[in-house]
Write a structure and sequence with these properties.
The protein is of the alpha/beta class and 395 residues long. The chain folds into two domains: 172 residues, Rossmann fold; 180 residues, Phosphoglycerate kinase, N-terminal domain (Rossmann fold). It is 38% helix and 17% strand. The protein contains 14 helices and 17 strands. The protein is elongated, with a radius of gyration of 22 Å. It binds 3-phosphoglyceric acid. The site of 3-phosphoglyceric acid has 8 residues, from loops. It is found in: Cytoplasm.
């Protein structure tokens, strides 16, 4: 694919597909990583004299104008992080977008309203792609994290304008490819989090590629239950037990070692600063639930990491947003950071929760590479073709 190195931006109207789908709570952005990682591309384009027209989806408004899902608050966030003014258009296509784009001068930046306010965005409707294409001379896609969606703004428009990968897209693809295309072994993968059924598929694929598969978070409960252990009130998916057993059998057959929790931190309710106990993984009391892995498990993971060359991490080990259930995730994150610095461990992490967890642990900048992607990172780990990337490659 072509990059900004191949693009003569001066005086050009550039449609930049960003991913401003950032986590927001009570109207406040809780993590600006995606905005920050986008800045090099915007700056480079604007400094080269392009008229930068930024578009993105936000949340899942399902083709309706949902006021709480407007990108308007992002004007200030973007402008503050960029340290330059950002203009606004109330729509991503049509008269409002056309008028705002027409007013833009060289080096200026415009943000368009949520692309998903149009039902045609997610349907990859050629009319939406055409409306977007009419705003610009060139298309730059910097939304690796939305590249698993074949939408008008991520895929369709790439066929209508000369298309390029932005700096973030380029960095994501280079880092992931170099790290996992042909990784140095042993490779350890840590997979955690609550999205059990979605990640079981990932586990099936990862076990063919990695040497040790560490399973933590709520999905570990499903595996423990599938082994016949009492899991008490723990979150788990009973209907996935057969699949979990199959995964364990397949992993054994392919020579991939699965590491399940040896001990668990349990509480009778999921609440901040709840009273906790640490129990063996097969001893969760009936009235309690597992919310983190315990210290013996952390030791076992660290032992694997000390021998590893490459680590792929997706998903926290426990309910890290609610201390004290952050302890295992923080401890392992800090070990990974030290090993990355001291013994050249190649540490690659991705997923919205994982990024927040690493930030919480204070080690976000001490990994070899942190992807901004959630679902796209997963699909990439599953070996799937990402339509947004394929469209750039075809361009
Ligand atoms: C993400 O946050 O993973 C991307 O922005 C894609 O969002 P989506 O899952 O709503 O398509």
């Amino acid at each position: 694919f072509r990059t900004l190195d191949d693009l003569d931006a001066s005086g050009k109207r550039v449609l930049l597909r960003a991913d401003l789908n950032v986590p927001v709570r009570d109207g406040k952005i809780t993590d600006r990583t995606r905005i920050e990682r986008l800045l090099p591309t915007i700056r480079e384009l604007a400094d080269k004299g392009a008229r930068v027209i930024v578009c993105s989806h936000f949340d899942r408004p399902k083709g309706k104008r949902v006021p709480e899902m407007s990108l308007k608050p992002m004007v200030e966030a973007l402008s503050a992080t960029l340290n330059r003014p950002v203009a606004w258009a109330d729509d991503c296509i049509g008269p409002a977008a056309d008028a705002a784009a027409a007013k833009l001068q060289d080096g200026e930046v415009l943000l368009l309203e949520n692309t998903r306010f149009h039902a045609g965005e997610e349907k990859n409707d050629p009319a939406v792609a055409q409306g977007l294409a009419e705003l610009a001379d060139l298309y730059v896609n910097d939304a690796f994290s939305a590249a698993h969606r074949a939408h008008a703004s991520t895929e369709g428009v790439a066929h209508l304008l000369p298309s390029y990968a932005g700096r973030l897209m380029e960095a994501e693809l280079k880092a992931l490819d170099a790290a996992l295309g042909n990784p140095s072994r042993p490779v350890v993968a840590i997979v955690g989090g609550a999205k059990v059924s979605t990640k079981l598929e990932l586990l099936g694929n990862l076990m063919k590629k990695v040497d040790v598969l560490v399973i933590g978070g709520a999905m570990a409960n499903t595996f423990l239950a599938a082994q016949g252990h009492a899991v008490g009130k723990s979150l788990q998916e009973a209907e996935m037990h057969d699949t979990a057993r199959q995964i364990m059998a397949d992993a054994a057959a392919t020579g991939c070692e699965i590491l399940l929790p040896l001990d668990l931190v349990v509480a009778s309710e999921f609440a901040p600063n709840a009273m906790t106990r640490t129990v063996a993984a097969d001893r969760v009391p009936p009235d309690m639930m597992a919310l983190d892995v315990g210290p013996d498990t952390v030791d076992a993971i660290e032992a694997k990491l000390r021998k590893a060359s490459t680590l792929v991490w997706n998903g926290p080990l426990g309910a890290f947003e609610t201390p004290p259930f952050d302890q295992a995730t923080v401890a392992v994150a800090q070990s990974v950071a030290s090993l990355t610095a001291s013994s050249g461990l190649k540490s690659i992490a991705g997923g919205g929760d994982t990024v927040s967890a690493l930030r919480h642990a204070g080690v976000l900048t001490r990994m070899t590479y942190v992807s901004t992607a959630g679902g796209a990172f997963l699909e990439w780990l599953e070996g799937k073709t990402l339509p947004g990337v394929a469209a750039l490659e075809a361009a």
